[in-house]
Design a protein that fits this description.
Elements: H1 3-20, H2 30-45, H3 55-79, H4 81-91, H5 99-105, H6 110-136, H7 143-168, H8 175-178, H9 180-203, H10 210-248, H11 252-262, H12 265-292
Length: 303
């Protein structure tokens, strides 16, 4: 079995086992720390600065913002308030913390995705206390501290740790290539845990109307496909893959938490289904990237 086949098998196995073993959701708390560990390796070789920001980053931010309300309107047309809120939480979600990791596997420009991740998470975290009362119809004064704390831990802790390690040991920038297999293993483990959590969540929604669940699944699948497609266009020739990943892969852990805290379990199915859709697309991208990757030079082991 070649490298592409092994990775594809690992991805599909993780998704299947996650769906079949919902009991593993009790370990979902480790996902945040797995992401922090992976981002630490990303930040070791990728520095975020003002020069990292491109005009397309601000277009992505604007589209991300608009997508939340466009999805809200679409959901309202399809099935009413709960569907609208489920679509809103799926559409408004900022770039995923794992998106830079996926881009490193796709051999793209990681710095672009890191900049998008930081920009969208910081700005949308600041806007959430304003946006949530508008869509929910009631004030949420505590949202700012909760969202900012979550984003701050995941973004700035690994960034600061990487900066400190580089300062003390400059050759640490050479570590990430040798850790590629470990990073991929962590990502597969995260897929298993996230899918297990989604499976457990869906199994416990016994009171959710089947028609509503199907509409949420359909609307979020459309939103996911539209996000990846729009990002591809926004990125242009130079950054089409990077912008597509930045807009399409979402920080759903954040909005699942917000939906459960301020709305309902049914509404939280929006970002929960989005987890499934963007991971299916990521799996296909990784499979294609491995199949079309150049063969390693003689005598060299492929990372």
């Amino acid at each position: 079995m070649n490298s592409a086949s092994r990775r594809t098998f690992s991805i599909l196995t993780a998704i299947l086992l996650g769906a079949l073993i919902p009991q593993a959701h009790v370990f979902t708390w480790t996902v945040r720390w797995l992401i922090i560990g992976q981002l630490f390796t990303v930040f070791l070789q990728t520095r975020v600065s003002r020069s990292s920001l491109r005009r397309s980053h601000f277009v992505l931010l604007a589209v991300n913002f608009v997508m939340g309300f466009a999805a809200w309107g679409l959901g309202a047309l399809v099935g009413g308030r709960d569907i609208a809120l489920a679509a809103f939480f799926a559409g408004i979600t900022p770039t995923a913390s794992a998106a830079p990791v996926i881009m490193s596997f796709l051999h793209g420009q990681v710095a672009y995705v890191v900049a998008s991740f930081v920009l969208t998470n910081v700005v949308l975290a600041a806007l959430m206390p304003v946006l949530l009362p508008f869509v929910l119809g009631r004030p949420t004064p505590e949202a700012f501290a909760q969202v900012s704390g979550s984003v701050g831990l995941v973004v700035f802790v690994p960034m600061a740790a990487a900066w400190l390690v580089r300062l003390v040991h400059p050759r640490a920038t050479e570590w990430p290539p040798s850790l590629r297999n470990a990073s991929f293993g962590c990502w597969v483990l995260m897929m298993f845990l996230v899918t297990s959590n989604a499976s457990d969540f869906l199994r416990h929604q016994v009171n959710a109307p089947p028609g509503a669940v199907l509409r949420i699944a359909g609307v979020t699948a459309f939103i996911s496909a539209l996000n990846f497609a729009l990002g591809w266009v926004i990125g242009g020739k130079e950054f089409h893959r990077e912008a597509s990943q930045s807009l399409g892969q979402k920080n759903t852990v954040l909005t699942i938490y917000l939906a459960l805290t301020y709305a309902s379990p049914l509404v939280a199915l929006g970002p929960t289904f989005y987890v499934i859709w963007h991971n299916v697309w990521n799996s296909w991208q990784l499979h294609r990237a491995d199949r079309h990757a150049p063969a390693p030079a003689a005598g060299l082991a492929r990372p």
